[in-house]
Write a structure and sequence with these properties.
single chain; alpha+beta; Lipocalin; 2 domains; nine-stranded antiparallel beta sheet; eight-stranded antiparallel barrel; 2 helices
Amino acid sequence: MKKNLLLILIAVLAITFTACKNNKKANNESETADMHNAQNAIDWPGSYYGVLPCASCPGINTMITLNEDGTYEKTVEYQESDDTPETTKGSFTWDETGSIITLGESTYKVGENQLFALDADNKVIEGDMAKDYILTKTQLEAEPDVNEGPTPQSFTGDDEKEYNILFDTNPTPPTATVESGNFNVILTQTAASAKSAEYEGENSKLSVNGDKGTLTINNKKIALKAK
């Protein structure tokens, strides 16, 4: 009888030890899984670009740059709008899962080379429009150098014409000479910042921001993109 009780006790101890070991292993695996999230397992620093849906325009050109130190720069441009592109800077935060970031009033899920714009409940947009809420990691193109002397730059207009523009900072104020076929006009700079400039002339205006711009001729707007 004592021998049987001893065998039963040994069996119970063995089962208990195995259960504890399995629980410990499961906990360790869970902790390991929790450690591998977007924040520490993905090469997320960089710039992301996409055209987000817009209720009052064709789309919103959106560029977000995430820096390794937790700061960001976000630029939004409403297509077919006279408004100047708006740039905001600040610090972003990660949620407790390490997969969602908050920039101002916007939230994004961080994926491999992608940012997913989330809805008001911090959920990924689903359905037919899901792809319209994705920003893709991109390599920024070099901006045309408009700050030193005469600098030529070629653009393609949405009217399928080519526009050659000579930016010249030697005159005071600087000028931009626009040529396309028989069209030739010299515009005078009226405003400028580190990344953008505006020029005006008789019946013509030019606004450039990096590798994009808008040329207005006799009130007709032509969207430009650097070649």
